[in-house]
Write a structure and sequence with these properties.
The protein has 2 domains: about 1-75, Roll (Ubiquitin-like (UB roll)), CATH 3.10.20; about 85-150, [2Fe-2S]-binding domain (DNA polymerase, domain 1). Helices cover about 30% and strands about 15% of the residues. The chain contains 5 helices and 5 strands. It has helices at about 20-30, 85-95, 105-115, 120-130, 140-150; strands spanning about 1-5, 10-15, 50, 55, 70. Strands 2-1-5-3-4 form a 5-stranded mixed β-sheet, sandwiched between helices. β3 (about 50) and β4 form a beta hairpin.
């Protein structure tokens, strides 16, 4: 099927098989490999992109379903001159990554969260990112990064509530 979409401000047209997942189209046909394939089951969120301004796990949608859409990937967040998006800078400043595999999806989900709720509490950040999994950091610095970005100062040091590990991480 012939499809056309705008990805990071550029028009892309392609002939795709109807069963091609959007994540595979973005990575293999368009060549934007920042969007990661983590699970292919919508469990991890590593493939999160923005479709028409909404955060979507791109392994849950077919490329043909995104025909005519405007898509932003992690590569599209930074300015044309290479200046990082405030959320990307906050992740850098707050050390919100370890292996980095989940980071693109986490950043995309976090930017969407702040669009919906510009001043979230720590709890709201944790709940807002619960569809994205990180296997390395325990989320502490990721939550700090989102709160720092929300404050308008990516280098600020937000205070977090200690997690009671004896209660399974619940508060």
């Amino acid at each position: 099927m012939q499809i056309s979409m705008t990805i990071n401000g550029a028009e892309h047209s392609a002939d795709v098989e109807p069963r091609t997942l959007l994540v595979h189209h973005i990575r293999e046909s368009v060549g934007l490999t920042g969007t990661n394939v983590g699970c292919d089951t919508s469990s991890c969120g590593a493939c999160t992109v923005h479709i028409d301004g909404e955060a979507v796990k791109s392994c849950t949608i077919l490329a043909v379903q995104a025909d005519g859409a405007s898509i932003t990937t992690i590569e599209g967040l930074a300015a044309a001159d290479g200046t990082l998006h405030p959320m990307q800078e906050a992740f850098r400043q707050q050390h919100g990554l370890q292996c980095g595999y989940c980071t693109p999806g986490m950043v995309m989900a976090a930017t969407s969260l702040l669009t919906e709720n510009p001043s979230p509490t720590e709890r709201e950040v944790r709940e807002g990112l619960e569809g994205n999994l990180c296997r390395c950091t325990g989320y502490h610095n990721i939550v700090k990064a989102v709160l720092a970005a929300a404050s308008g100062d990516p280098a600020s040091e937000p205070a977090l509530t200690p997690v009671d590990v004896t209660a399974g991480g619940q508060r």
